[in-house]
Design a protein that fits this description.
seven-stranded antiparallel beta sheet, 24 strands, globular, 4-deoxy-L-threo-5-hexosulose-uronate ketol-isomerase, zinc, KduI_N
Amino acid sequence: MTKYSFRYASHPDDAKNYDTKRIREEFLLENLFIENEINLVYSMYDRLIVGGVKPSDSPLKLETIPYLKSENFLDRRELGVVNVGEKGIVSVDGEVFELNKKEALYIGMGAKEVLFSNAENSQALFYINSAPAHQRFPNKKISKENAIIIELGEEMTANKRILNKLIVNEIVQTCQLQMGLTELLPGNIWNTMPSHTHERRMEAYFYFDLEEGQTVAHFMGQPHETRHLFVQNNQAILSPEWSIHSGAGTSNYSFIWGMAGENLDYGDMDICSPNQLK
């Protein structure tokens, strides 16, 4: 079963007036993983689709949705998949990919049938991002062995973390989609600090591996007009191009960042130092 919803884009002058309820309605994606369902959110931020897939006994097929007005979901789109659960299987037009936890798969435009299923005695959780595409590139699995791994941050600033670049242009040819996974080391809580914005692309954050009973305070908004949302395990945030996207957890956690927009330049960002935030 495929379920879907729609989110409009917001002007920063409007967003700064949102109360807690409204800001959560506009930017927070709460229930991505429901058994035997594919749950999708179509966003007007660079038309990124964010979703979660939790297969049961039978494979789940990625079906088109009315917003796409296409026969197949990937007729004019590309797709990134990261497994955040136990071992799972993704079949793309008969080609089978096994994904362990924290492994990724890029699926190019034009694929007709995409099936998600569990490996034996496992419960996979597939987190997906999809962006419009103009050219077909080959499907490719990305594991830890061929990811670009970078150590960032310091213990003294509580942001020591491991950045895993997965679906990026140094590894995979894509039209505009980029995805990666960052792991906060034990005792560290801050992600993406110092904060930044990048006006030529939007971003989606997905928080996972957060211990039960813990939370992450996700900070967003313009650097001079910040807001926050408290986020739970397996929830995602839509981050507009004008917004910072930093977080601090009550324990360590992992998160997946996905981007779409005008360029594939990972370093194209405007840094804001911590003492400049308001």
